[in-house]
Amino acid sequence: MNGVKSVRKFKPNDTFGEPSVRKRLAKPWVTFVDDVEFGTIFHLELLMFYKAMEAPDVRQTDKLVATLKQMQATGIKTVVYSISWQWAEPEPGKVRTEYISWLLDAACKNTGLQVDLIVDLLNPPDWFWRQYPDARPLDSDGRNYTRMSWFHPQGNKAALTLLSSVATHLASNYPGCAKAIQPVYNNEYEAKYTQEYDSFQDYGPYALAEYRRWLQAKTQDVNVINLRWGKRYKTWDEVRPPALHSGDFQGVDFSADYWDFVRFREEFGAAHYNKACATVHAAGLMCFHHFPEFFTVIDAMYGATMFRLIASSPFTDFVIMDSNFMTPYGTVMNPHKLRVYISAAHAYGKPVYFEAAVERFKDFDLLASGFYNSMLAGADNIGITNWHTRVDMNASLTKAMHTAPTCGSCEVVGVFLHLQSCAAYHGLQWKWARKDPLHDMVEELAEKLHDGDCGTDIAVYIELDKFLADMGSFSRAVFVEPLVLWGTAEMDNYIKVKSALEKLPHTIMHMPTNVTSGPQLMVLADL
């Protein structure tokens, strides 16, 4: 996996930070010719275009094989399928291995493509609901959803059992062809919380019990919570998080009860994804995750701050940063922002892929620009999804996926943008002139830094310690002041970074807030 890592060209005596970051900073710009460009065929597309749910003799196997061969001719090396738990396990313990083998055989026995598989655990089969009728999540308004709550212990165990069965089948029967699995609990196949009706979740009984256990692991005294949150709880059974909705609070929220809930959702969600990947590893396959675009005011609602804990997990082998090129306004995103978003993933030492989702905008020039900017950001691989009926597998796509910038960089700009502070917003700012001022700020910063094209290499960091470790390699820096720091350790790193900035050409920026008086930066003590 030796794709484009960086446009940086350093002298041999240059020194860098920690080893996992050093590789990215030291890698020279090379032509983008990697071996794992990928294309996705989702479960719904398999049903629509290849009659996948029909009997074996009715399925359009020849058509699927022809599509796979066309993908390979275009230069794609890996097909990414997805399967749904609802379809894959019609009865407890009875996995449709024949169907899974049909998918794998089409690629492994007829082409040179390798296979990655997305296992959708969001929607369980009917038997699951008969066994666990209370396993549905509730949102902040008490609405009941038709999918599994990952806080439900028995339901979660059933999901991991299915995941283990599928992973074991692939590893045992398709060695060398089946490579990796992504476990998902989200309707967009991304590592985040699924939210509907602009309401945070989960507020069901299992989620509340888990939250109370999380708090009690930090303090057994409910009065500590009362003092911290300004409440008057008499027992732990009364303790509950604030009822949150996207856009219900304008500006940034500095309240401790809000931030404790944000931190809990981050830690629990990441641990859940990491446990699923540990299950995949135990079967002998690699594990990966898709991540949505972050650096927006909806990061808190979707739990985007989980990224750092998932990307740094030993059970995560590579990460896919995806984009559908749509802003929170429903307009076309400036693809230069991809450089900031994708670059932020490199600090965790894992291969970083970019996936273009083309369901929103059928614009080939936009797609090509997305690939180009992902290469500038050092993406190890690139891929495409939702391309059926929208993008043809042809020479034009091959060229777009393999045309890399040929120029070199003359400077490295280190950018610090604290992802956890992006969670200070509840959601879209409906009463502001801009609904998503955070997205706007980052997009404008990306455009300004892109003025140098290849000449300016952008190294983005979302955690202070990783930014601090690499500051010696920067030509200059852009430091976006954080809003919230967690505990003494992060505060100490903040002080060290601010001191080191004095020795480096730098620009200070501030996240957009509506706070005209009061706190500019909050240091929240650990419980």
Automatic annotation (TrEMBL):
<dbReference type="InterPro" id="IPR017853">
    <property type="entry name" value="GH"/>
</dbReference>
<protein>
    <recommendedName>
        <fullName>Glycoside hydrolase family 42 N-terminal domain-containing protein</fullName>
    </recommendedName>
</protein>
<dbReference type="Pfam" id="PF02449">
    <property type="entry name" value="Glyco_hydro_42"/>
</dbReference>
<keyword id="KW-0378">Hydrolase</keyword>
<keyword id="KW-0326">Glycosidase</keyword>
<dbReference type="GO" id="GO:0009341">
    <property type="term" value="C:beta-galactosidase complex"/>
</dbReference>
<dbReference type="InterPro" id="IPR003476">
    <property type="entry name" value="Glyco_hydro_42"/>
</dbReference>
<feature type="domain" description="Glycoside hydrolase family 42 N-terminal">
    <location>
        <begin position="60"/>
        <end position="281"/>
    </location>
</feature>
<dbReference type="GO" id="GO:0005975">
    <property type="term" value="P:carbohydrate metabolic process"/>
</dbReference>
<dbReference type="InterPro" id="IPR013529">
    <property type="entry name" value="Glyco_hydro_42_N"/>
</dbReference>
<dbReference type="GO" id="GO:0004565">
    <property type="term" value="F:beta-galactosidase activity"/>
</dbReference>
